[in-house]
Design goal:
- It is built from 13 helices and ten strands.
- By secondary structure, the protein is of the alpha/beta class.
- The strands form two sheets. The protein has an eight-stranded parallel β-sheet.
- The two termini are 23 Å apart.
- The mean pLDDT is 92.
């Protein structure tokens, strides 16, 4: 299948990478750093929390990001920043959705990432703003529904992804989606190295989607202990469970213990934990992460993470070129 060119918002990146929107962690200073480094930075609209009587936080965040990136572009015309993305939770339980959509339309947000349900009206709003809509999916059935409802591209959330990751291997899911869809396809799931990004592209993806390495950055809005767990952890420190949010997700085992829960006792538990009367809350005390955290060795600026993955990506592509020549001579 010959795929069409990527939309301009995704075609002009330093290299094909999108920083995933992370609950609590992704804030303007992180998004700005990611975009300045040449990849798409993103944040969930719901991270812009508000107190009664305060100005609308989402409006302020968007203005802050836009002004910072505009200043960067004026000062660096030969090295412009990448565009940013806003993640909208489109589930009916999101009572802010309609208002947040209106704000994003006014600000002409260039990339919209939608989660937990495909809504035609949200995709239409993205297009009205001159943007594109990417919908995250965990299987081929949801992928078909998202495109049928007007999404421009898909984010395949595969096994090993942080937060609410899907159970399927990228080898399986990307292959199934590419059998019928030739539009923008992003792959998530332990894409923490340049080698993983190159592998995702070899499978048929256009871009990679990376989150957990950015938790251990100076700009991330994360508890210092959370950052340190990312640095010290590896794939064996990740547990998949539904008990914390009701949706299957990947979590740091040390954070589960730190919150006073026994990971072994929770293994295989189907029911959601009841926090009534407890001073613990899953959204605050149990920390999500993907299986690719073994690639993280220190807390660094976000730009350093981008630089590392870029170096590894170039090296992986060079290695693949060597392998391709070897195979040509072998066959």
């Amino acid at each position: 299948m010959t795929r069409p060119s990527l939309p301009p918002a995704l075609a002009g990146l330093r290299f094909p990478l999108i920083a995933s929107p992370m609950f609590i962690v992704s804030v303007p200073r992180l998004v700005i750093a990611q975009c300045k480094a040449g990849i798409v930075g993103s944040f969930p609209a719901l991270n812009a929390r508000e107190e009664a009587g305060e100005p609308v936080m989402l409006e302020r965040w968007l203005t802050e990001i836009e002004e910072a990136l505009d200043r960067h572009n004026q000062d660096n015309p030969d090295r412009p920043a990448a565009p940013f993305a806003v993640n909208q939770i489109v589930h009916r339980s999101n009572q802010r959705l309609e208002r947040d959509i209106d704000i994003c339309v006014r600000h002409k947000v260039p990339i919209w990432i939608t989660s937990l349900g495909a809504r035609p009206e949200v995709n239409e709003a993205a297009h009205a703003a001159g943007g594109i809509a990417l919908h995250d999916v965990i299987n081929d059935t949801y992928a078909h529904k998202a495109i049928a409802k007007g999404a421009d591209g898909l984010i395949a959330v595969c096994a090993g992804a942080g937060g609410h990751g899907g159970p399927q291997s990228p080898f399986a899911l990307v292959s199934e989606i590419r059998a019928w869809f030739d539009g923008p396809l992003v792959v998530s799931g332990a894409v923490s190295t340049g080698g993983a990004l190159a592998a995702a592209r070899a499978l048929g993806a256009d871009l990679g989607y990376v989150g957990s390495p950015f938790i251990a950055t100076e700009e991330a809005n994360a508890d210092p202990a959370y950052k340190q767990m990312i640095v010290e952890g590896g794939a064996e420190d990740i547990m998949t469970s539904k008990v914390f949010s009701g949706i299957s997700g990947n979590y740091l085992i040390p954070s589960i213990r730190r919150a006073g829960f026994d990971p072994d006792a929770l293994e295989g538990t189907a029911s959601r934990l009841d926090y009534e009367g407890s001073d613990k809350a899953a959204w605050r005390d149990v920390w999500g992460a993907g299986q690719g955290i073994g690639a993280v060795s220190e807390i660094v600026p976000a730009a350093a993470v981008v630089d590392r993955i870029a170096r590894e990506y170039r090296a992986a592509l060079a290695n693949m070129a060597v392998l391709a020549k070897e195979q040509e001579s072998a066959f």
